[in-house]
Amino acid sequence: MALPVKLICRTGQVHADGTCSIFVQYCCNESQKPLFGTDVKIPPTYWDKAGRCISERLPANHGDYNELNDELKRLKKIVEDIVTYAGLKKIPLEARAQFAKTHFSPTFDFNDIETKEKEAAEQQETEKKNRINVYYQFDEYIKSKKRKVSKATLTVYGNVKSHLLAFEVFRGQEISFDNFDFSFYEDFVDYLTFEHIHIRRKTVQTGLKLNTIGKTIKHLRGFIKDRVKRKIVKPIDLSDFKIPEEESDAIYLTYEEIAKIYQADLSEHPYLIEYRDLFVLACLTGLRFSDFSTLRPEDLQRDMLYKKQEKSDHWVIIPLRHEAKLIFTRQFRDRIPELTNPEFNRHIKTIGKLAGITQMIKFSYKKGNQNIVVTKPKYDWITSHTARRSFCTNEFLASTPVELIMKISGHKRTKDFYKYIRITPEEAANKIKELWLARNDMKLIKESVTEMELQYN
Hints:
Blueprint: E1 5-9, E2 20-26, E3 35-42, E4 47-48, E5 53-54, H1 65-88, H2 93-103, H3 112-131, H4 134-145, H5 151-171, H6 182-194, H7 210-229, H8 255-262, H9 273-283, H10 289-292, E6 300-301, E7 304-308, E8 315-319, H11 322-330, H12 341-354, E9 360-367, E10 370-377, H13 384-397, H14 402-409, H15 414-418, H16 425-440, H17 451-456
Antiparallel strand pairs: 1-2, 2-3, 4-5, 6-7, 7-8, 9-10
Helix pairs in contact: 1-2, 4-5, 5-7, 8-9, 9-11, 9-13, 13-14
């Protein structure tokens, strides 16, 4: 039985030069009849419909009819061979038209089809591996989050990926989605606790703090759950991926200490003045570094700062104290200095030292089953985030309603807000005493003289 491949001339579609194109047609089925171009064109009068070839009457100026017919037979044979090959490979009938279109060309070499098939299979295998590759998927996950989270959170995602890569190198075994079980969790946490080497440090330091490890596990879980939810990987049991955490030690600065910093004599260090003023502005507004370092003149309206927080994408409106307004209008009304967080942290430690914030402070943190104790002067504990923590704590101690403080700080949950409050047990006791005095003068019974007092007298 003849193959459903034939030569046709579209005599009804005449070009401007009076010629028509000749095609090879593959009649795969009623709906699929693809055409394959031959680059042969003749006047329609010289097409032999019965013989499906060019008539011997073709004028010489259009070419030699024998040579043209030989070329048409060659191209028709290419299509026939491709269709035959598709049948031998048991390619479904409905897919053979596309298969022929993919592989046909006027310069086709039948031997190339095996090479093309092999290359296509290798490409499919590579794409399949990429689809289930942990790091490829992590990059895709980060891309999907770019318009939903802050730059700082994207950086955290990148750090999690870096930790996975470092762990992979450390244990000398490729990490795949199949690895994410309890044994992996234990080994990964152990590596982060004792073996992970900090990069960009002058001296070699190993091991991360417990809360940093907890943040890594938290975001790793979020990534895996997202990939499972999108049905990219099969469901993974993460019930044993606990998030380790401990209450972090951190300082806050009292209003008296903030005033000492604001009034510090920096005449011998004039380059520190704008860092000092920006830090004090942050202490009086509760803004994060990512927000107070990107303030613009138009953010000040009617003695209020209007700022959209980068991390939470939440608008806050902050009234300015006298000193804060003075700093903003005098120092930063036209320009906020461009600076990095590490640079800022380094300079404000120096400023804190010059301001006499030298009280020795002892903090501790967990590393495995060890309790690491670190003692440093208070100025050495100051970071850009100290400003935000100081604002929340000072306003809390001043009895400002928590709900109002949260409107300025941008906290959405009370639980998160209270993590910022840093007061000593003595400060807590004094605060309670102050409330009790205001409530009933520290007495249980309101009468001026109780029977018990009379007995003691």
